[in-house]
Amino acid sequence: MAEVGYFSIILALVLSLYGIVAFIIGIRKKNLVLVESAKGATLAVAFLSSVACLILVYFLMSGDFSIKYVYDYTSSDLSAFYRFSAWWAGNAGSLLLWLFLLAWYSVVVAYSRKGKLMAPYATGILLFNSAFFLFVLAFIANPFERVSGWFPGAIVSAGAGMNPMLQNPGMVIHPVTTYLGYVGFAIPFAYAMTALITKNAGDDWIKITRRWTIVAWLFLSLGNLFGAQWAYMELGWGGYWGWDPVENASFLPWLTGTAFLHSVMIQERKDMLKVWNVTLITTTYVLTLFGTFLVRSGILTSVHAFGDNSLGRYFLVFTAAMLAGALILIVERSNFLTQGRSFEAFLSKESSFLMNNLVLVGLAFAVFLGTTFPLISEAVRGVKVSVGAPFFNTVAAPLGLVLFLLMGICPLIAWRKATGKNLRDNFMLPAVLAVVVILILALSGIRKPYALLGFGIAAFNVSAILREVIQGTRVRHKLAGESYPMALIKLLMRNRRRHGGYIIHLGMVLMLISIIGSNTYDLDITKSLKLGETIEIGSYKLSYDNLAEKDLSNSRVAVYADLSVYDRVSGRVLGGVEPQKVFYPTTDEPATEVGLRSTLKEDLYVVLADWQKDGTATFKIYVNPLVSWLWIGGYVLIFGTIIALWPGRGNQTGARYLNRKSDVVQDDGEGVA
Amino acid sequence: MKETRRLSVILVLLALLFLPITALGSEEWQTRPIPSEVESGVICVLDGCMMNLAACQTSAGEKLRGIIREKMFKEGLNKDQTYAYLVAVYGDKVLAAPPKKGFNWVVWLGPFVATIGGGAFIYLGLEKWVGVSLRDEEEEADPLEPDAARRLDEELKKYL
Strand pairing partners for A562? Predict the structure, then answer.
């Protein structure tokens, strides 16, 4: 059956190459039969990819250790859930998953009723991507390769086993969502390139791909969020974001993708920034490939990486080729992308969006430079340096705060030209509230400037959004005679793009509050305790009650400690935590399972670091304020994105703002965001 | 000569007497926790680990912690002196952020220079675009009276 899987890959590669050629000739000769045939090839590639995936999953689930991939990433005692997730635990399997998603996305594009003239070009570009992945799977990282050479018999029958760190629900979902995001950005890129190839200077490609872009952005946001949750629970260092190169790799396209989501609004409304938008989506797409290169090349060390592999150089060549091709196309066709309009004033929504783009791209540049600087330093000076959290926190904090300030300003500023009165009306109340919040916090003892500024900016954002929503609800209540709850619901539904955006911003503000709280007011202590001893941290008192060992499923053994948690002042029992070290039969290093007591106020996070035969144990204990709000903010962000995506009336693009006598203000919808 | 020998014997005896106390002391510093602000500034460079020491739970991390404990708690070095020792032994890569000197300024200042440069570029672009827009307005006289324009703006704002 492995041969069938491999043959599927080879056949899919041949068909994808055929599809590319058929699309090119079919489009050039205007031969519809050939174009339809190419679409059929796209469908066949997706079908064959599915066959390959099904066969790999069958091998994983049945535990056929004669397949090297199954041997490398599973073991006979691994649960069915993690056997399935082993599909993307290694290089070959994860590339197969990537191909599977890309192939079916391509089918949806090929058979889409939207933008029928552009679809063949875009599908051809996507097929080119698929062909690369198929080539890699066929010749570099074959998931159906059989075990060969000498292996100790006992291990062959059991399998080498999955990395314990990957045996966590967060790590099961995180890669899939991240890939859905990565692959999703290939669609707007393909359409952008189509617009350039066909010299289509309009914003058709943006309209066609708006949903694709938002969905890709949503999945990438989820991927980052699930990755942070996994790191928080599994790595046991008390944090959720360590600025690891691979974390940065998925953060980079998120930043440029966010910039793109905002800047396309200017093209939709003002027919401007065409070159910039094409450049931004190209950058985002290339950064998704760059991220994959980082993960698979082993060029930078990371806890998330797949390790050293020759795959890296193929990804580097492909990334460079796609970047070069796109840039040549952009430069060649830039004369077609002339701007239709111009800005009417320095102070307007469009100029504030430009600033938002500037800071997002600036932040992306900072992360990119920091991530690659160890390589640059070694190449230029021959000196190895490390660039980690202290650097990124120093550089990202000021840029991030400016970004959040702009996030509060942009939605409330008028298109075309903001007047002094507009600014006063919209910003006086939020600005006053922000100052009040800063003063209250300063008087209550908070002295750290970034924290004060950050909380003030968060207050500014929240009050600006609430003011806007409350005002809109009151107007509806007054004019339409609706009850306040009904007026609020109808307001949200009437312009979902705009209000979905507000909800997303609200989610981001909750995350900002959490990030500031957990990074500036966290406490930690490391201490060895004898049985029965207590330790105090923050408002907690912990009593070390027990140290024992227990057998877990799948031949795992856990050493765990029981600690009772009390309120430090009142002595009231708050509960208990049970940090563990779990030993897996297939690896030497035990995995950490933290003991967590999570509330909306703070997390009590306990790690069992070490223990002695006499029962003495060393604990690392952290109190991380406001961490729950990071996850809550993430869910609010998801909700807002779904609102913004929801189809039907209320989801259209807003008015186009034109400024010439001959122009007519068009409004093809109700939205204005 | 006899005096010297006697002194030597006394010194040796004294040393033997204090040995257990010193050994007890060494046990204490060997398990004393390293402040997290010290750990978070160090990369675990041993055995190719390359994780931040604060996050590293491998045996390589423990080995490096042992070295830091010895320098800080046994030899009494402060944070900066400990870092200087680590850099002398393992190179700049042992620090979690590149030292602010020489070529490293590229990474420290690059993002800010690029962002400020981008801001200047946008400002110049806006100046040009707004200028074009104003000239257009002059060429194509606004047919609206100021009062009508104000009312139109008010109406537009309702949809903003």
Answer: A546
Report the 10 Å Cβ neighbour count for B1: 5
Task: Using an 8 Å CB-CB cutoff, list chain A residues near B104.
Answer: 377, 385
Dist CA A39 CA A571 (whole Å): 70
Distance from the Cα of A516 to chain B's closest Cα (Å) equals 17
CB B55 within 8 A of CB A237: yes
Q: Taking each helix axis as running N to C, give the angle between helix A245-270 and helix A169-184, from 0 to 180 degrees, rounded to the nearest 10.
A: 40
Residue B153: both structure tokens together: 């703006």
Strand A595-598 to A580-583 pairing: unpaired
And the tokens for A287? 């950064």
- Residue-wise pLDDT for B114-156, tens only, equals 999 998 988 887 777 776 655 555 555 455 666 776 777 666 6
Candidates A301, A344, A386, A476, partner chain B, best to mutate (most B CBs within 10 A):
A386
Amino acid found at A470? I
Cβ–Cβ gap A355/B140 under 8 Å: no
Taking contacts as CB-CB distances below 8 angstroms, the residues of chain B near A525 are: 33
ipTM of the complex: 0.81
Instruction: Tell which residue, A532, A610, A618, A541, has the closest CA to residue A575.
Output: A541
Tens of pLDDT, residue by residue over A264-318, are: 888 877 777 788 899 999 999 999 998 888 877 666 665 555 555 677 888 889 9
Mutation for testing the B interface, residue in A240, A385, A521, A668 having most B CBs under 10 Å? A385
- Single pTM value for the model: 0.86
Nearest to A381 among B94, B103, B119 (CB): B103
* Strand, helix or coil for residue A582: strand
CB atoms B119 and A399 under 8 Å? no
From A380, which residue of chain B is nearest by alpha-carbon distance?
Answer: B103
Q: Distance between CA A309 and CA B92 in Å, rounded?
A: 26
Q: What is the structure's pLDDT at B15? A: 53
Nearest-CB residue to A388 (from B96, B140, B143):
B96
Instruction: Reply yes or no on whether the pLDDT at B19 is more than 80.
Output: no
Looking at A544-647, list the stretches that DSSP marks H as alpha helix, in order from N- to C-terminal side: 628-645
Structure tokens at A322: 């796609």
Contacts with B, A 601-630, CB within 8 Å: 609, 618
Question: What span, in angstroms and rounded, lies between the C-alpha atoms of A628 and A635?
Answer: 11
Question: CA-to-CA distance for A365 and A392, rounded, in angstroms?
Answer: 11
Identify the segments of chain A with pLDDT beneath 70: 148-158, 297-309, 337-342, 344, 648-673
pLDDT value for B67: 92
Per the rule left: phi > 0, alpha: psi between -120 and 50, beta: everything else, A602 is: beta
B132/A301 Cβ within 8 A: no
Asked if the Cβ–Cβ distance from B110 to A524 is below 8 Å, we say no
Say whether A391 and B118 touch across the interface (CB within 8 A). Answer: no
Cα-based distances in Å from A364 to A255, A453, A457, B122: 6, 22, 21, 17
CA distance A99 to A104: 9
Interchain proximity A526–B33, CB inside 8 Å: yes
**Partners of residue B41 in chain A, C-beta under 8 Å:** 390
Alpha helix (H) residue ranges in A74-118: 80-85, 91-110
Say if residue B28's pLDDT is above 90: no
Nearest C-alpha of chain B: how many angstroms from A65? 29
